[in-house]
């Protein structure tokens, strides 16, 4: 099968961009990715854009991809929005890779953008709830923090996961984000601060929850033919898998779709979880990182929290997780998150991650989750990327 | 290049489904398409769903594809929403074809769904405006009927198109829809009624505008390998092109993106406009059908209105256009429209179109437009399908 390369990546800083239109924020990330790839805008022959809930907030439901790319000078080519809640731009990357493999494109652009700040918390939460099952979940009071609080309680009860492990995830996330100039929450916090934060949904405090962020990230993908003669650094997309829940094995402490998608991704890349040097994992809540790192095969089931307490997931640990700061502290501009994970691991594999560089990283995994409050979720996208 | 086949199609009746959830409406179309293909739900290995503005109306922005397919029994597989305003499910079909060509899928499902009724006209119009350029178009008062009224005025002035030609498009649309049990507006109208309807935006009357409809349509696509051993009837997707506007040649009487996309589609299929026996064309307003049929190369520029008056576009005419009734009378449930066009031409090519059957049709074209009020629009998808 033809190999797909990532030849350029770019992000805007995640944070508060309330005075910048969504289209312009997206364009800024695209321009940075094109500069990174050292190619002109007119080399892009196909584009996919991922965004989720922006339309519910400002009314601009369609055409953000076309409007953003017009600002860059890119017009006329196929431009398609893909949406899968929080994994929207992961899916944009996947469609780009598929289009290249099908011969529809030689150099494809995938980008994600979301603007969530500048609205009331109520409006932002209502918009986010649009990615759950509205009549059967959000309308009857099941919120994202609520369901992850249940997951945390269950995980603590079933596996004896200490409450402190959640705080250790948060402490690590803020520490890593403090080394990331693109992160939203760059303030280091202590474990005690995390433990004693304002309760959102017991046991989760404000420090266990990712922030509401604006942001945009972009990835330039190319065919093997283009990549082989590309003058700049190249990393390879060895696997790009999308799976959805089956509802067969509902669990409050495990994501069956993460397990299945990761098995497919490892098989596709010809590796196993032990071969992954670094991973960006969908830590919308601290407990989510613990559960997903278990389901990805990095740790035994029930050991994710203890592994965090042992320091295994730190930048200098055995299995560095979310060196970027993750959704938890880098930020979670919904539609941008998946592409942003690939920006981070590409920089890590290219030894360009500055103070948060993981030494010797050759193979990386990104994991993004979209939709549904229920555990057996709407979409899991897993990429394996290597030097 | 591998050929892609359509092995099954299905639609719900377009019209008023306000008591049926969006997911269920989508599921009903999918079940009909699977029955038509005579395959079990577990043969589907990949799905794309197109919808546009439903989230702006009922808050369910994400996961409609997953929720709909769960009702059918389809879980676990890759399910991705693609959105490109009114061409959303055309793009779902395109992504399905690309996935098959890339080897990601053998049997892919593309479906579109939209629910627009049961809301105030103001709310529905505001949601539709989300597919234009919100700050620069809709917020300053440029509505879809308004811009197409300007187009009609300009076309009448530049080419001498009689006002009666618009009414003739509407008369034909209603006549065709009266023969289509899946159409929303099945009442025949006279040309005089169309001419003397209530003015929406001069010269367009209520009869020049497509209705607000609920609906869902689905298409099952398969690889050439699967299609060759498929027991049921098969039609072939010879071209599937997506183009976006370039802003280079703004015109009030021509869609440059339609011209460019159709040239690419004809080239890909190895044919010309004269080889097209029937076409479903994006007639959101009567003037749009006239303009697009010119831009598709069916008629000389400026002759589209006169061709309609000559009867060329009728079911028994030289170039039957919108035998289904079109968006104008079959209805325009935004996200379902593109897939619905393929349902119609597939039935026509299979000689299953009943009273509206176009005799001897062997090659068909579908044309779908998405986004923007400005002429040089957001997305044009053109399919060429043959027996």
Q: Helix- and strand-based class of chain A?
A: alpha/beta
Oligomer designation: homodimer
Question: Residue share in helices of chain A?
Answer: 25-40%
Morphology of chain A:
globular
Number of strands of chain A: 11
Most strands sheet of chain A:
9 strands, mixed
Pair of chains with the largest interface and how many residues each contributes: A-B, 58 and 58 residues
CA(first)-CA(last) distance of chain A = 18 Å
Gyration radius of chain A (Cα, Å) is 19 Å
Describe the structure.
The structure is a homodimer of 387-residue chains. By secondary structure, chain A is of the alpha/beta class. Chain A has 14 helices and 11 strands. Chain A has helices at residues 22-37, 54-58, 64-72, 88-101, 121-129, 144-159, 163-177, 191-195, 224-228, 256-269, 286-295, 304-310, 326-329, 337-349; strands at residues 4-11, 46-50, 79-83, 107-114, 199-201, 204-205, 215-223, 235-243, 278-280, 363-370, 379-386. In chain A, β5 and β6 form a beta hairpin. In chain A, α7 (163-177) packs across α11 (286-295). The longest helix of chain A is centred in the N-terminal third of the chain and has 16 residues, at 22-37. The two termini of chain A are 18 Å apart. Chains A and B meet through α2, α3, β3, α4 and α5 of A and α2, α3, β3, α4 and α5 of B. β3 (79-83) of chain A pairs antiparallel with β3 of chain B, so a sheet runs across the interface.
């Amino acid at each position: 099968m033809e190999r797909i390369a990532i030849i350029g990546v770019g992000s805007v800083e995640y944070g508060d961009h309330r005075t910048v239109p969504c289209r312009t924020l997206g364009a800024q990330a695209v321009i940075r990715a094109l500069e990174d790839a050292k190619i002109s805008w007119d080399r892009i022959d196909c584009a996919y854009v991922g965004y989720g809930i922006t339309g519910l907030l400002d009314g601009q439901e369609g055409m953000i991809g076309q409007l953003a790319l017009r600002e860059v000078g890119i017009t006329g080519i196929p431009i398609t929005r893909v949406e899968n809640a929080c994994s929207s731009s992961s899916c944009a990357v996947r469609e780009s890779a598929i289009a290249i493999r099908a011969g529809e494109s030689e150099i494809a652009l995938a980008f994600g953008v979301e603007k969530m700040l500048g609205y009331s918390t109520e409006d932002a939460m209502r918009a986010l709830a649009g990615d759950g099952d509205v009549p059967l979940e959000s309308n009857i009071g099941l919120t994202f923090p609520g369901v992850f609080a249940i997951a945390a309680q269950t995980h603590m009860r079933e596996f004896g996961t200490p409450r402190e492990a959640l705080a250790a995830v948060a402490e690590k996330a803020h520490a890593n984000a403090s080394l990331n100039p693109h992160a939203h929450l760059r303030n280091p916090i202590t474990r005690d601060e995390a433990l004693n934060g304002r309760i959102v949904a017991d046991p989760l405090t404000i420090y266990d929850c990712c922030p509401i962020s604006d942001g945009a990230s972009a990835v330039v993908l190319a065919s093997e033919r283009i990549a082989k003669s590309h003058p700049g650094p190249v990393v390879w997309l060895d696997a790009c898998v999308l799976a959805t829940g089956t509802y067969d094995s509902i669990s409050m402490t495990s994501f069956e779709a993460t397990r299945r998608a990761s098995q497919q991704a490892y098989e596709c890349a010809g590796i196993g979880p032990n071969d992954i040097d670094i991973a960006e994992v969908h830590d919308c809540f601290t407990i989510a990182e613990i559960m997903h790192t278990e389901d990805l095969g990095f740790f035994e089931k029930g050991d994710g929290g203890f592994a965090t307490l042992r320091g295994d997931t730190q930048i200098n640990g055995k299995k560095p997780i979310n060196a970027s700061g993750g959704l938890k502290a880098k930020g979670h501009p919904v539609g941008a998150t998946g592409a942003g994970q690939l920006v981070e691991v590409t920089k890590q594999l290219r030894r360009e991650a500055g103070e948060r560089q993981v030494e010797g990283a050759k193979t990386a995994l990104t994991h993004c989750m979209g939709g549904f409050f229920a555990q057996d979720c709407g979409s899991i996208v897993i990429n394996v990327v290597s030097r």
